Amino acid sequence: MTFLGSLLLAGATAFLGAGCGNTVVVTGSGGGATTGKTSATVGASTTGTANTTSTGNQCAAYDDQKGQSAVVVRFVNQSGLPIYLPTSCDQIMFQIQEVGTSMGPSYVFDHSCLQTCHDLQTQAPIACGACAPTSILLAAGATRDVTWDGTGLQSGVSMPSSCYLMPEPTCSEVVAAAAGTYAFNAVGYSSCGTNCACDASGLCHGNATGQQATANQVQTTFPGQALVQVVFGPCAFPCPNG
Known about the structure:
By secondary structure, the chain is an all-beta fold.
């Protein structure tokens, strides 16, 4: 979660985040007509210092949790056309939703400049600048992998003020996803904007835009399958007269 704006901290020093981090680690070529694979971790909190003083007190209840199991989410492009996947700070954004629930944690979230309830027990709030607009090219016939670590981000948590280094109204907590059935959805687009350029890894400097492509929804029991394939089928864009 990004904390925006200037923070006036009377009698303390404000920590300024140096931009947003790249959470996509390229493990193969993805540009052009070749098949590319990208590995990334979705849901992991990467910002903050471990709290070593909360164990055994009320603040320990707000420590970040670990997921029960990891799931590789593989995006597959069978549409015959290039698809540009939307990103947030270079992290592919899609949807994981527990079936039968309308509210709950966000299981795919931007953690490039995230401070959780756990982090704020030992850190002052930070301010981060906006990341440059990017998208990820999923070439025709290509696949890309990200890893969901089995956690979600619960926002609007009311942590006792005594647990904060510098009190905030609410905070966000990384929580373990409950056992159940989860639906995976994704959309992509036909372009990445005017004058957009993509590097050899498939990272494009421009927002995903244009005609929308919709992947086939897939549901799976969690914990269970180690691999979930999210497929953009032949009519993802959709097909004429259909």
